[in-house]
Design goal:
The chain contains 11 helices and no strands. With 213 residues, the protein is mostly helical. It has a domain of 145 residues: Tetracycline Repressor, domain 2, CATH 1.10.357. The chain is globular. The termini are far apart.
Length: 213
């Protein structure tokens, strides 16, 4: 789910209610998981806190891990949408197209509250093995989806050429390094994450020629 605030205002009432319920689930889950530990909060307790049924929960999320990792998963969902509408300049490197799509997706994330949710989610994941495993599976699915989408939209070499998928893998690695750096800032902001991502992407190709002595 990557609908930004402006788009949300244009949605029908029923869809806006779904979005509000979804956001309440994310906020409540992150607060409860942070206070009591991920394993210390049952799905029943989470649903009760938001005053919804488990059936409603599973219409929105697949698991506790899914709701806990929603802030960054929303970003990558928006990335796929941006990539699907990207119009690269002639000869523009694929990596730059991917980077620009991720920066555009980041710009769509709400300025109010999103960074706080990301921080809570990442700190929780650092001490929750099941979230880490969920994140790896999500990353693989998203990378495959990005590869398939880029192959459909752009004139890319077909397998067994490894370069398109490696470009995506490098972007994902750069994002994770940028996220680590960003989380160490005193008061991380969305714009600072964008700058951290730009710096990591710039360093990526240079890392391949870095002397080992």
């Amino acid at each position: 789910m990557s609908t930004d605030a402006t788009d949300a205002e244009r949605l029908p009432l029923r869809e806006r209610k779904k979005l509000r319920t979804r956001q309440a689930l994310v906020d409540t889950a992150l607060d409860l998981f942070t206070e009591h530990g991920f394993d210390g909060v049952t799905l029943d307790a989470l649903c009760e806190a938001v005053e919804i049924s488990k059936r409603t929960f599973f219409r929105t999320f697949t698991s506790k891990e899914d709701v806990a990792m929603a802030p960054t998963q929303d970003l990558w969902g928006a990335f796929l949408e941006e990539l699907d509408t990207a119009e690269p300049a002639a000869g523009q490197p694929l990596f730059d197209v991917l980077r620009d799509a991720l920066l555009a997706a980041l710009d769509r994330m709400p300025e109010e509250g999103w960074t706080d949710r990301v921080l809570l989610s990442r700190r929780l994941a650092a001490r929750t093995p099941s979230m880490d495993a969920h994140g790896l599976a999500f990353c693989d699915r998203t990378s495959r989806a990005a590869h398939d989408l880029a192959a459909r939209r752009f004139s890319l070499p077909a397998p067994p050429d490894l370069r398109p998928r490696l470009a995506i893998d490098v972007l994902v690695a750069a994002f994770h390094r940028a996220l680590e750096t960003w989380m160490e800032a005193p008061s991380p902001t969305r714009n600072e994450l964008a700058e951290s991502l730009r710096a990591a992407c710039q360093a990526a190709p240079e890392s391949l020629t870095l002397p080992a002595h």
